[in-house]
Each structure stands twice: as structure tokens, then as C-alpha cells.
Amino acid sequence: MAAAAHEGMTQRVAASASRDDGGGSAAAVSGPNKKPGGGRASTSRRGLRSLAAAVSLSAALTALSFFAASHSSSPPSSPSPKAATASTVAVVLAGSVASEAVLALAAWMAWAEGGVHARPAATLLPYAAQLGAALAWAPLVLGRHAAPRAGLACCAAMAAAAVACARGFGAVNPVAGDLAKPAVAWAVILAVVNYKML
């Protein structure tokens, strides 16, 4: 398994070196079914698949946390005046899913540039912390045992982790750093919504 991975890496390095030299010789591209110039299409397809997986997984997990929170909450006999309305929950769900999808795109861009492997403490850890806090927010605030104060702590963790993501991703790819900034704004907006439910 390791030998096959090493051989694949060697082939990619050789192909990259031949493109940099300007020589598109077929000797640099080896393997049983490899054709010169055919590697770009498969590489771009793999890149698009990994991008789609990263964005859709993050968005789906966020939507699933809202779905689980709404089904775990029992309808109260008399609704509290501070409870979130259905329209508020719908707006928060849409904003959270969009924010997580854009942040996943930024994380994917940092990963594609090699930043996740080169700087995991500056990229991967803040992203995982932000995603974890975002997934915990809906069950804490909208679930059966609503705890808006814990939700505010989640919002603070989301904002701090999103700032760390913007810095870490920005060091790898400036566009990825800029894409992480709306997650900071969303965490602040979510904190305001959460504060009104106290």
C-alpha cells in the first residue's frame, strides 16, 4: 500500500516537473492506462468531488443538527414569550447552513493548497472547533432542555474559531481567509438572536 502511494507520488512529481520544463513527453506520465494530457481531467474531477463532499457534508451535518433539535423538543403546553418562532428558526437554519458551506469551501481551498497538512494547528483545529460549536448550538438552544446561556458560549467559540480560521486559511490562501470572514459575522448575528431568547 505504501509502495503504491509512493509510486503515485513519484509519477505526479515527474509529470509536474515535465510540465514545468515545457516538455510534455510521454515518458513522464507512466502507468498502464495513462495518456499524455489525460491526467488533468481526472485530477479536476477528483478535485470537484472532494469539494462537493466537503461542502455538502458540512452543510448536511448543520441541517441535521437543527433537524435533531427540532424533533427532540417537545411542544410546550404554553409557549414561553422568549421561545424562537418558526420563522426565526428557519432564518437561523438557512444562515447557519450557508455559513458552514462557505467555511467548508474556505477549508477545502486551504487543503487544496496543502495548508492543512503543513499547518494543522492553524487550519484544521480551528475549523474542527468551529464546526463542533456550530453543530452543538441548535441542540443546546432549540432542543428539549433549552440552554440559551450555553448557546451564547457556543456563539463565542464559533466566533473565536472563525477568526482563527480566517487567519490560518489566509496564511495559506488569501481568498480562503477572506471566505472565512463571513462566518465571524454570522456567529455575531447568531449571538444576537440567541441573546434575545434569554
Secondary structure: elements and pairs:
Elements: H1 2-21, H2 39-72, H3 86-112, H4 115-118, H5 120-142, H6 148-172, H7 174-196
Helix pairs in contact: 2-3, 2-5, 3-5, 3-6, 3-7, 5-6, 6-7
Region (Disordered): 1-45
Pfam families: TspO_MBR
Protein name: Peripheral-type benzodiazepine receptor
**Number of structural domains:** 1
Instruction: Give me the strand/helix succession.
Output: HHHHHHH
Q: How many helices does DSSP assign?
A: 7
Question: What would you report as the Rg, rounded to the nearest angstrom?
Answer: 22 Å
GO biological process, one term: tetrapyrrole metabolic process
Family: Belongs to the TspO/BZRP family.
Keywords: Membrane, Transmembrane, Transmembrane helix
Protein name: Peripheral-type benzodiazepine receptor
Overview of this structure, please?
- With 198 residues, the protein is an all-alpha fold.
- It has one domain.
- Helices cover 79% and strands 0% of the residues.
- The chain has helices at residues 2-21, 39-72, 86-112, 115-118, 120-142, 148-172, 174-196.
- Helix 2 runs antiparallel to helix 3 (86-112) and helix 6 (148-172) packs antiparallel against helix 7 (174-196).
- The radius of gyration is 22 Å and the shape is globular.
In short:
It is a multi-pass membrane protein. The protein is an all-alpha fold.
List keywords for this structure.
single chain; 198 residues; mainly alpha; 7 helices; 79% helix; 0% strand; Peripheral-type benzodiazepine receptor; membrane; PTS_HPr_His_P_site; TspO/MBR-related_sf
